[in-house]
């Protein structure tokens, strides 16, 4: 889902940066508040960031014959809320843009919007919905992580389609092309992301129950566990 | 829980392995090319005249150095998660042992 450096027209690059910036600012505030209230959650915040760091470094094969990577943003969104994950995701994307030439500074805003805003918000929304409907915890987490991952890749496809409409079939036509590359490849990978996120949440609920209970979002987790 | 996690991880592994077993008609293209690079190709098809207007300040010099950096990224993340989980695991066990000491009747019955 990394849009390469320079591959969005300047107007699009600037627009996505302006859309993403307030989320990052809100996220920094929300992390500060969480850490002030629950200093013991600092390490767990590190785990959420590290999870996205590892998982987005691994390119996995897909049944379409191409490969892509996971985003790892579902875990942080469930644990700390969506905008906290925006900040962690932005750090991951910045590292990849600067050191790996994956993505870029001009496309950072757009990439942050796809991976660190839409992904976490979809994941968080689905998680909350699952909790409201009293789905089993594993199902809520699985659906949140998998659909958040998929939403990120659909967003990237839309961003590219808006920037590069097909000369004959327009935005819809190019959306179909980009979605074939990104979204279809991502379906099995999104399932993998869901499975792995459930495993890590299982381990955390067993060994870090106290930290989880300290965070408000996770009171429900504790009750269920 | 251990069994259930094992099953979930096996399932994830299976999803990774299945594509490797499929015989794709690559037409001489690199098998399992990255989706990001493929999207670049689609852009070039849609807008052949588009010129990237900005290039990275720095690029890893060559594929091997890129692999190195990706491996470092994964290792750092995995190392931190491993450290955290090991610490939580140990702490939980130490606490459980302390609790047992605090209530000797329970401790005695388990021996």
UniProtKB/TrEMBL annotation, chain A:
Predominant cellular place of this UniProt entry's protein: membrane
Gene3D superfamilies: 1.10.1760.20
Subcellular location: Cell inner membrane; Cell membrane
GO CC term (a single one): ATP-binding cassette (ABC) transporter complex
Molecular function in Gene Ontology: cobalt ion transmembrane transporter activity
Membrane topology summary: Multi-pass membrane protein
UniProt keywords, alphabetically: Cell membrane, Cobalamin biosynthesis, Cobalt, Cobalt transport, Ion transport, Membrane, Signal, Transmembrane, Transmembrane helix, Transport
Residue ranges crossing the lipid bilayer per the database entry: 43-62, 74-99, 105-127, 139-162, 182-204
An individual GO BP term: cobalamin biosynthetic process
InterPro entries: CbiM (IPR018024), CbiM/NikMN (IPR002751)
Subunit structure: Forms an energy-coupling factor (ECF) transporter complex composed of an ATP-binding protein (A component, CbiO), a transmembrane protein (T component, CbiQ) and 2 possible substrate-capture proteins (S components, CbiM and CbiN) of unknown stoichimetry.
UniProt function note: Part of the energy-coupling factor (ECF) transporter complex CbiMNOQ involved in cobalt import.
HAMAP family, A to Z: CbiM (MF_01462)
Official protein name in the record: Cobalt transport protein CbiM
UniProtKB/TrEMBL annotation, chain B:
Subunit structure: Forms an energy-coupling factor (ECF) transporter complex composed of an ATP-binding protein (A component, CbiO), a transmembrane protein (T component, CbiQ) and 2 possible substrate-capture proteins (S components, CbiM and CbiN) of unknown stoichimetry.
Record's function text: Part of the energy-coupling factor (ECF) transporter complex CbiMNOQ involved in cobalt import.
NCBIfam families xref list: PRK02898.1
Species the sequence originates in: Heliophilum fasciatum
Family matches, as HAMAP family: CbiN
Cell compartment(s), UniProt: Cell membrane
Short name of any one Pfam family annotated for the protein: CbiN
Metabolic or biological pathway, per its Swiss-Prot or TrEMBL entry: Cofactor biosynthesis; adenosylcobalamin biosynthesis
Residue spans crossing the bilayer: 67-85
An annotated GO BP: cobalamin biosynthetic process
Protein name: Cobalt transport protein CbiN
Glycoprotein as UniProt keyword: no
GO CC list: plasma membrane
InterPro entries per UniProt: CbiN (IPR003705)
């Amino acid at each position: 889902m990394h849009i390469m450096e320079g591959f969005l027209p300047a107007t699009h690059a600037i627009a996505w940066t302006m859309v993403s910036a307030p989320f990052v600012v809100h996220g920094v505030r929300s992390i500060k508040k969480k850490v002030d209230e629950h200093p013991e959650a600092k390490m767990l915040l590190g785990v959420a960031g590290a999870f996205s760091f590892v998982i987005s470094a691994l390119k996995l094969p897909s049944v379409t014959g191409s490969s892509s990577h996971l985003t790892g943003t579902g875990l942080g969104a469930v644990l700390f809320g969506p905008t906290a994950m925006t900040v962690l995701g932005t750090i991951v994307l910045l590292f990849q843009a600067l050191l790996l030439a994956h993505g870029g500074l001009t496309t950072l805003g757009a990439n942050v919007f796809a991976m660190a805003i839409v992904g976490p918000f979809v994941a968080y929304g689905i998680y909350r919905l699952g909790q409201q409907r009293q789905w089993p915890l594993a199902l809520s987490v699985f659906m949140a992580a998998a659909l958040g991952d998929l939403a990120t890749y659909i967003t990237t496809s839309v961003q590219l389609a808006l920037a590069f409409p097909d000369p004959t079939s327009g935005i819809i036509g190019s959306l179909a092309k980009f979605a074939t590359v990104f979204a279809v490849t991502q379906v099995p990978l999104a399932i993998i992301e869901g499975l792995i996120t459930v495993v890590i949440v299982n381990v955390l609920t067993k060994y870090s129950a106290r930290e989880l209970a300290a965070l408000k979002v996770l009171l429900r987790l504790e009750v269920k566990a | 829980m251990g069994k259930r996690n094992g099953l979930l991880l096996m399932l994830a592994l299976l999803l990774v392995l299945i594509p490797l077993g499929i015989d794709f008609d690559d037409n001489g293209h690199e098998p399992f090319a990255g989706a990001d690079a493929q999207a670049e190709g689609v852009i070039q098809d849609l807008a052949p005249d588009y010129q990237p207007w900005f290039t990275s300040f720095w690029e890893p010099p060559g594929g091997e150095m890129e692999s190195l950096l990706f491996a470092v990224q994964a290792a750092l993340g995995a190392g931190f998660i491993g450290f955290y989980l090991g610490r939580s695991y140990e702490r939980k066990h130490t606490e459980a042992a302390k609790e047992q000491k605090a209530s000797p009747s329970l401790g005695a019955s388990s021996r």
